[in-house]
Amino acid sequence: MKWTDEINIFVMRAYYRITNSEINFTAYRDQLYGEFIEKYPGTNVTAQRTSDQRRVIVRNHQLLPALLEQIGSQLAKGFNTGSDSDSGEQ
């Protein structure tokens, strides 16, 4: 499967939301996988692969650090106001 920027952005948005902007890592992998499969049902990936992809995105700069920071801060604002800021997804 080709991990496009759109898919990588979805993975990072879901990751930041699930972990409450990297505050709560409890069982995030299964939740991330569940959301990924819901959004991309035709893909053949495992829960381990989706969490590995999150690490690949960060370590190999698959998305610009400024974009990751923007995604994280947008979601953090949503946590502070109690709203769901994930409506900007493609």
* Integer-rounded radius of gyration: 12 Å
Distance between the termini: 19 Å
Oligomer: single chain
What class, by secondary structure content? mainly alpha
Indicate the low-confidence ranges by residue numbers.
Answer: 85-90
Mean pLDDT: 87
Instruction: Tell me the overall shape.
Output: globular
Our count of domains comes out at 1
β-strand amount: under 5%
The tally of beta strands, per DSSP, is: 0
Fraction of residues in helices?
A: 55-70%
Number of helices: 4
Strand/helix succession: HHHH
Q: How is the biggest beta sheet arranged?
A: none
Précis, in short:
The protein is mostly helical and 90 residues long.
Please give a structural write-up:
The structure is a single chain. The chain has 90 residues and is mostly helical. It has one domain (5-88). The chain has helices at residues 5-18, 28-39, 47-59, 65-81. Helix 1 runs parallel beside helix 4 (65-81). 19% of the residues are buried.
Task: Itemize the secondary structure elements and their pairings.
Blueprint: H1 5-18, H2 28-39, H3 47-59, H4 65-81
Helix pairs in contact: 1-2, 1-3, 1-4, 2-3
List keywords for this structure.
90 residues, disordered C terminus, mainly alpha, 4 helices
